[in-house]
Amino acid sequence: MSDAVVPHRSDNHPQAPAGWFRRALDSDILYSFRRSRLTMVAAVITLLFFALAILRHGLRCRTRSIRRSCS
Questions:
Q1: Cβ proximity of 47 and 40 under 8 Å
Q2: Which of 22, 47, 51, 66 could cross-link to 17 by cystine, CB 3.0-4.6 Å?
Q3: Please, is 8 exposed, middle or buried when counting C-beta atoms within 10 Å of its C-beta (0-12, 13-18, 19+)?
Q4: Which of 28, 67, 69 is nearest to 36 (CA)?
Q5: If you compute the radius of gyration of the chain from its CA atoms, what whole number of angstroms results?
Q6: Cα–chain-centroid distance for residue 32?
Q7: For the whole model, what pTM was predicted?
Q8: What angle do CA 38, 39, 43 make, to 5 degrees?
Q9: What is the pLDDT of residue 4?
Q10: How many Å apart are CA 59 and CA 51, to the nearest integer?
Q11: 65 torsion bin: left (phi>0), alpha (psi -120 to 50), beta (else)
Q12: Residue 26 · residue 17 · CB < 8 Å
């Protein structure tokens, strides 16, 4: 017989948050992201660029003259 010790979780260790969303909110990367205003402003500007790129066709059709068709 082998006298190997099998590690097990003891009751005095803190439990990890359940679910991937809670783990993401508790991560060091998100904590650092929330602490940096410049990073948050850059993320908002980037999301704005993506949103405008996705919605550009609809915005273009609404701003054109009535006589022209949007196709």
A1: no
A2: 22
A3: exposed
A4: 28
A5: 25
A6: 13
A7: 0.52
A8: 120
A9: 73
A10: 11
A11: beta
A12: yes
Dihedral sign for Cα atoms in the order 33, 37, 40, 46: negative
Residue spans of alpha helices (H) in the chain? 20-25, 28-35, 37-63
DSSP-assigned letters across all residues of 47-60 = HHHHHHHHHHHHHH
* Separation of alpha carbons 22 and 2, rounded Å: 40
Residues contacting residue 57 through CB under 8 Å, at least 6 positions apart: 70
Q: pLDDT truncated to tens, each residue of the chain (71 aa)? A: 567 776 766 656 566 667 888 888 888 888 888 899 999 999 999 999 999 998 887 767 665 555 555 55
